[in-house]
UniProtKB/TrEMBL annotation:
Coiled coil: none annotated. This is SCNNG protein. It is a multi-pass membrane protein. GO terms for molecular function: ligand-gated sodium channel activity. Residues 578-636 are annotated as: Disordered. Its main location: membrane. It comes from the Eukaryota. It catalyses: Na(+)(in) = Na(+)(out). It comes from Rhabdornis inornatus. Belongs to the amiloride-sensitive sodium channel (TC 1.A.6) family. SCNN1G subfamily.
């Protein structure tokens, strides 16, 4: 029983001592302890320096050093995601690219007349009505198939119009009557060129088949552009209904297109070309496509080597309304790439020799987080409709075609068919034209989302082309050369060739230098950590251990103190609430639970008290000065140690 008061005093001192170190009860005590014990010299100097001026200077220096560290580390982090470009040039034997060649005129006009008779008739009527142009009585025969009854009504539904721009009054092609056109006006070119009257322009109107009030008027800067666009619109309607096998027969064969062929000085023929049917360019032929498992290469540069072909264009059999230029169109590409001849093809003129010198470059960019490119396109949520390696153009065209099928219910004729879809035509999809133009408008304005979804490829090959042109054949050699080429053509051609029907093409490497452009990370992880360490050591004389110490003190210990104080407050609030419900006096009024000199402590720490710290116990703030009670020592009580009184003391007690 004698040791109980001592244990109470020990526990009371233990609860009230100002504990220091990571177990300090307040943030200020924790920060003071950290500054006295940290390895960073600036923080320690703030605490131990004497004088306000010197302490202020150390505070400014320390804060400046911290600011510089943060700035430099932020620069290092931003540079970590940057890349440097390196160029490597190699001299070696180069793989020859694939070369795709198309006639600018996709189909023989003589074979297509039965399908295009009604369309050509309407076009000639528009020229005669609007411009007074007449070829006399049309000799174009009508189709013997069911094409003759399907076009007229539709041409009348979407006729060419002569529009007075300011009054928006249109003159129809068929009836010649004037009517006011409603709906939005879209000028397909930036400027308006007058045709005839001062304010008249040519165009056509498209309306929603389900809502006749929804219309759009498309006008053009030139009557030529308007007639060609209108003609192409109906042309795609017709071609979408012709089977692929029939279209391949209507276009040019390899024997029709290719007169002579040489590669690296050796003769080649149609067996070295692969046919590929393009919706807008008909039969095209790819040299060195690699489909047979063999890819040709060249070990010598210069115009004497490479590919040399002479093409027969047959200008007399061109469609006069579909194409207005003569010649061929070629594109140089990799064997795994799709030839977008309509987008980036190079046009080759007739009656001339065109020399195309190539420089080969391979490029590779770093993917995320350095750039927003894709390695294979597998991470792009767009189905590849071309069955070729991924490219940005493939993604954009596939995305638009998918949106076309979803919005209009059919596929656009110029792109491959998605699974389960069919090409648009006015028989099955009378509303597709209006839908297509509206959708294409959104695509151009980047409102369709395709430009945001599609990304550049991280690696690609590029052939930079240098083109030179010379007259061919020359005047002095024209006669014999055309005779020989006509003889080479043999019985397939019953007339003498004309130089405007011929294209002479040479494609070759100017040199065998392969340029490889690659991106490399400017900083690696090792360099980044080394730079961090240099900045911390330079400005704060700090190491990795110091960083761990900062994390421990400022994150773990500080958070622990805050949470502990909040927990004690919650416990105190709950204790008062429970007593209030029970009707008991607060715990602070119990003399056994609260000392005379010290208030009841809030927290209980496990550090043992010392004599020095026990003398620094805090006084209560809102109570008078303590009054020390009389000591309650057991030795002051007169307790006998004997059970019976001695005989010699009885007398004294009686007296």
């Amino acid at each position: 029983a004698a040791t109980a008061p001592g244990k109470k005093i020990t526990a009371r001192l233990k609860r009230t001592l100002p504990v220091r170190g990571p177990q300090a009860p307040t943030l200020s005590e924790l920060m003071r302890w950290y500054c006295l014990n940290t390895n960073t010299h600036g923080c320690r100097r703030i605490v131990v320096s004497r004088g306000r001026l010197r302490r202020l200077l150390w505070i400014l220096l320390t804060l400046s050093a911290v600011g510089l560290i943060l700035w430099q580390c932020a620069e290092l982090l931003m540079n970590y995601y940057s890349a440097s470009v390196s160029v490597t040039v190699q001299f070696q034997k180069l793989t020859f690219p694939a070369v795709t060649i198309c006639n600018i005129n996709p189909y023989k006009y003589s074979a297509m007349k039965e399908y295009l008779s009604e369309l050509d008739k309407e076009t000639k009527k528009a020229l005669e009505t609007f411009y007074g142009f007449s070829e006399g009585k049309s000799k174009v025969r009508r189709s013997v198939d069911d094409w003759n009854g399907t076009g007229s009504d539709f041409f009348q539904q979407i006729p060419l119009l002569k529009v007075e721009d300011f009054s928006r009054t249109a003159t129809e092609l068929h009836s010649g009557q004037k009517r006011r056109v409603e709906g939005s006006v879209f000028h397909k070119d930036s400027s308006i060129v007058n045709s005839g009257d001062s304010n008249d322009i040519i165009g056509f109107q498209l309306c929603d088949a389900n809502n006749s009030s929804e219309c759009a008027l498309y006008t053009f800067s030139s009557g030529v552009n308007a007639i060609q666009e209108w003609y192409k619109l109906h042309y795609m309607n017709i071609m979408a209904q012709i089977p692929l096998e029939t279209k391949e027969k209507l276009s040019y064969s390899a024997d029709d297109l290719i007169l002579t062929c040489f590669f690296d000085g050796l003769s080649c023929d149609k067996r070295h070309f692969t046919r590929f049917h393009h919706p807008l360019h008909g039969n095209c032929y790819t040299f060195n496509s690699g489909e047979n498992g063999t890819i040709l290469s060249t070990s010598t540069g210069g115009s004497e080597y490479g590919l040399h072909v002479v093409l027969y264009i047959d200008e007399a059999d061109y469609n006069p309304f579909l194409v207005t230029s003569t010649g061929a169109k070629i594109i140089v590409h990799d064997q795994d790439e799709y030839p977008f001849i309509e987008d980036i093809g190079t046009e080759i003129e007739t009656a001339a020799v065109t020399s195309i010198g190539m420089h080969f470059t391979r490029s590779r960019k770093l993917s995320k987080p350095y750039s927003d490119c894709t390695e294979t396109g597998a991470d792009i949520p767009v189905e590849n409709l071309y069955n070729k390696s991924y490219s940005l153009q493939i993604c954009l065209h596939s995305c638009f075609q998918k949106a076309m099928v979803d919005s209009c219910g059919c596929a656009q004729y110029a792109q491959p068919l998605p699974p389960g879809a069919e090409y648009c035509n006015y028989k099955k999809n009378p509303n597709w034209m209006y839908c297509y133009y509206r959708l294409h408008e959104k695509f151009v304005k980047e409102q369709l989302g395709c430009q945001q979804i599609c990304k550049d490829a991280c690696s690609f090959k590029e052939w930079a082309l240098t083109t030179s042109i010379a007259q061919w054949p020359s005047i002095v050699s024209e006669d014999w050369m055309l005779r020989v080429l006509s003889w080479d053509k043999g019985q397939k051609l019953n007339k003498k060739l004309n130089k405007t029907d011929l294209v002479n093409l040479m494609v070759f490497y100017k040199d065998l230098n392969e340029r490889f452009i690659s991106e490399n990370p400017t900083n690696t992880l090792v360099i980044l950590l080394s730079n961090f360490g240099g900045q911390l050591g330079l400005w704060m004389s700090c190491s990795v251990v110091c960083v761990i110490e900062i994390v421990e003190v400022f994150l773990i210990d500080s958070l622990s103190i805050v949470l502990r104080r909040q927990w004690q407050k919650a416990k105190k609030w709950w204790s008062h609430r429970q007593r209030a419900r029970a009707g008991k006096a607060p715990q602070g009024s119990d003399p056994e639970r609260q000392g005379h000199d010290n208030p009841t402590p809030v927290s209980i720490d496990e550090d043992l008290p010392t004599f020095t710290t026990a003398l620094r116990l805090p006084l209560p703030q809102d109570s008078p000065l303590p009054r020390t009670p009389p000591p309650n020592y057991s030795t002051l009580h007169l307790d006998t140690a004997f059970t019976e009184q001695l005989p010699d003391t009885l007398e004294l007690g009686q007296h």
